[in-house]
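Researcher: Here's a chain I'd like modeled. Treat it as a single chain, no partners, no ligands.
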Amino acid sequence: MLSPLSKPTSARFIEPCLPSDSASPPRGPDWLHEIKHDGYRLIVRRDSDDVQLLTRRGQDWSDRYPLITAAARALKVKSCLIDGEAVACDENGLASFQRMRERQHDKTVILYAFDLLELDGEDLRPEPVEVRKATLSGLLRRHGRPGLHFAEHLEGDGPTIFQHACKLGLEGIVSKRKGSRYQSGRSPHWLKSKNPASPAALREVEEIAGDG
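Model: Modeled as a single isolated chain. Structure tokens:
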């Protein structure tokens, strides 16, 4: 059973963990770093044969992205909660938010899965992030389908990894403190470093300008 580490808005929804903005990526060996993909945050809930793709506000988008739904249903588990980012890739293999916005229902959208909150009734949120990711990697490696991709992480100098992400035109990176548990809401243990030249950052500038 899931322990009450956070107060869900319903029995079927857990508020996701959100990264805090960081002016620069952290240095040192105490962090792991993931690519920040430009898409929609989703938590995949699997209960028996029932699958829900829950947005940050708890809306079910399982009918929008059938490839993710089918992949989650094919997992050899009784239940699980997988956190990740749903993305639509362009011809260069990069996540395209514009493509997702233009196609509300898309059979090609996949999920970059980066965290595992629950597996077969066991609450994994108190476990260290590296343990949760290792368990998720094993699960997807054994039973994964095209709609679910494990989000690999890098260990090393955060600023160097961030610089490479920017050169590739990616949205940025999310740095996660080793040993940290999963907590709902804004977390000081997850730090987001944004590429100022990425489409996501430019969208934010345009939206701010439009509100002025």
